[in-house]
Amino acid sequence: MTDKLGQILQHTAEVRPMVHSITNNVTINDCANIILAAGGTAIMAQDEREVEEITASSAALALNMGALRAQEAMLLAAREAKRLGHPVVLDPVAAGASRLRSEMCSRLLADGLVSVIRGNASEIRALAAGEEHAAGVEASALDRVTEENLAESAAWLAAFSRKTSTVVLLSGAIDLITDGTRTAALRGGSALMSRITGAGCMLTSLTAAYCGANPNTLFEAAVTASGVMKVCGTLAERRVREEMEGTASFRTRLIDAVSLLTTEQLAEGLRIQLL
Question: What digits encode the pLDDT tens for the residues 11-69?
């Protein structure tokens, strides 16, 4: 598995996939920069008059529910991506916190427009349960994946993956990635991730970049994205501790680490378990 992830890392930098992201204004710059750091190119079109054309020239599409005013653009772009066979990565930001967000996510899933879902435990549980609960953007303490509930969490996540015919990446202190048959758990990373805005959005964008370059191996591409963020989070925290810097520097160091990451560093830093 480690060799395969290294191949995905290298191939992405070689083919430079264009990722079309419809994302929220809070994190749009970080999302663009993390795609560039991975070796891809980024475009952030949200006007429904052009999104189909932009999607057609892109390798992958990332949809972030933080861009609530762009729902019609999301549908148009997702339908075009499906028609062309391009991966669509959904970030169900704060799913369950409002009917508007929940209904849009449900529509995308019901129409079979999503290839990969990347969210925290609260968001994905809200999608799986199909019910509203005001967990907000941050993962609820009751929903966190722990060593004690790892097997149970992996089982319901795999069932949800099979039901939606998607690869699911549940991110947190322990990341779980599944295609319904295979499931991987990744540990590591940095607690500073939770102290900056946009770590999850960046992971979604990174996932879209690797999926765009490797559309026939979406599970492995999603595992690569998780692994890269875990390893780079560790490297970034080490650097800010050495320099006695803070959270703003951590965000910059995180993007730096992604741009400089080698296959050897990825292999050395990975803490992966196949369940």
Answer: 999 999 999 999 999 999 999 999 999 999 999 999 999 999 999 999 999 999 988 88
Domain count across the chain: 1
Q: SS3 for 119?
A: strand
Question: If you count them, how many residues does the chain have?
Answer: 275
Mean pLDDT across 203-216 = 98
User: Nearest 10 degrees: CA dihedral of 107, 71, 39, 248?
Assistant: -110
H or E stretch including 265? Answer: helix 263-269
Which two tokens mark 241? 């501790």
127 near 116, Cβ under 8 Å?
A: no
- pLDDT value for 168: 98
Parent domain of 265: 2-274
Chain mean position to CA 140: 18
**What confidence category does residue 135 fall into, taking pLDDT thresholds of 50, 70 and 90?**
very low
Write the burial class of residue 54 (CB in 10 Å: 0-12 exposed, 13-18 middle, 19+ buried): buried
What is the rounded distance in angstroms from the CA atom of residue 107 to the CA atom of residue 203? 23
> Alpha carbon 51 to chain centroid distance?
21
**How far from each other are the two terminal CA atoms of the chain, in whole angstroms?**
13
Name the packing angle between helices 218-243 and 247-260 (round to 10°).
130
pTM: 0.94
CATH number, domain containing residue 262: 3.40.1190.20
Q: How far apart, in whole angstroms, are the C-alpha atoms of residue 58 and residue 56?
A: 6
Q: Under a CB-based contact definition with an 8 Å cutoff, are residues 198 and 26 in contact?
A: yes
